[in-house]
Amino acid sequence: MCVLVCNAVRDNNIQVLQDVQRVVGDFTYKPEDPRELCKHLFTTCYMASENSSEDTRGRARELAMQIGSNHVNINIDMAVKGLLGIFSIVTGRMPQFRANGGSTRENLALQNVQARVRMVLAYLFAQLSLWAHGKPGGLLVLGSANVDESLSGYFTKYDCSSADINPIGGISKMDLKNFLQYCTEHFQLSALRRILAAPPTAELEPLMNGQVSQTDEADMGMTYTELSVIGRLRKISRCGPYSMFCKLIELWRETCSPSQVAIKVKHFFRMYSVNRHKMTTVTPSYHAESYSPDDNRFDLRPFLYNIQWLWQFRRIDNKVSDVELGYGSNF
């Protein structure tokens, strides 16, 4: 965006120049360098916890430096401990991570409280950062959840995915990676290479020997590549469990057996139906593709489903048996 603005100003676009001067609050300002303009417009914030790795912190700092954003490092542990302290006083119990002997419910709740604290802090800094520097106005909060996370429900309701607008909310992880590869070369953002090479992780569970123990794909039970294919079949091709299974058994026949495809399809539709309600509160997104599952603006299917999918899953099981017994493979 800053590159486009600087190019427009360089081409004597008076309207763009006036817009920039109004936004930054300086009617003598004339942007020439995109990184310098970014410093005026864009604040990035790395919200570390005791579960954050130094590698992730370093990648955030390096990218912020290369794009020129006003970068802030904060630690959320004090806020998280304060909330857990209130819970402990009221209930007399203190939840533990699964790695420390806690249950699945405790483990999930401890992850969610970190994510939700980040949302609250993001809005606090957006409202008061300019005030703290003696400047007028406030900032918009940008979200960063992608289509695949929304599709599978791999995010916390009312967490750091909640924002004023989400520029990438209508883009799949695979398309997003292609876009980042383009930016790496076109805008000379070498920091993106390290980001692309790193396994996607929420970093909400305890580290093991200083290294990340949690990855998105392990949590979701499938890869982002698989989820991207499934998402297109669900939204664009309007597939339910059985029709999706019939298509994937052909698409993935070189890499997965019919039983493996069945497991993946059933797992996806369980996640989809359990988490579909989250889409009713999703941040408004920019839509550039036809596969978005955005409930309010783009995908008007129900948000409450019977998660057992009895009829559909039974047909999948019957088809698996037929295929494995050699009774035809044409769908």
From TrEMBL:
Annotated keywords: ATP-binding, Ligase, NAD, Nucleotide-binding
Listed Pfam families: NAD_synthase
GO CC annotation terms, alphabetical: cytoplasm
GO MF, one annotated term: NAD+ synthase (glutamine-hydrolyzing) activity
CDD domains tied to this protein: NAD_synthase
E.C. number(s) listed in UniProt: 6.3.5.1
Enzyme class, spelled out: ligase
Stored InterPro entries: NAD/GMP_synthase, NAD_synthase, Rossmann-like_a/b/a_fold
Residue ranges occupied by any NAD/GMP synthase domain in the UniProt entry: 40-228
GO biological process, one term: NAD+ biosynthetic process
Annotated pathway: Cofactor biosynthesis; NAD(+) biosynthesis; NAD(+) from deamido-NAD(+) (L-Gln route): step 1/1
Domain of life: Eukaryota
NCBIfam families assigned: nadE
Entry similarity comment: In the C-terminal section; belongs to the NAD synthetase family.
Protein name: Glutamine-dependent NAD(+) synthetase
Organism whose genome encodes this protein: Alosa alosa (allis shad)
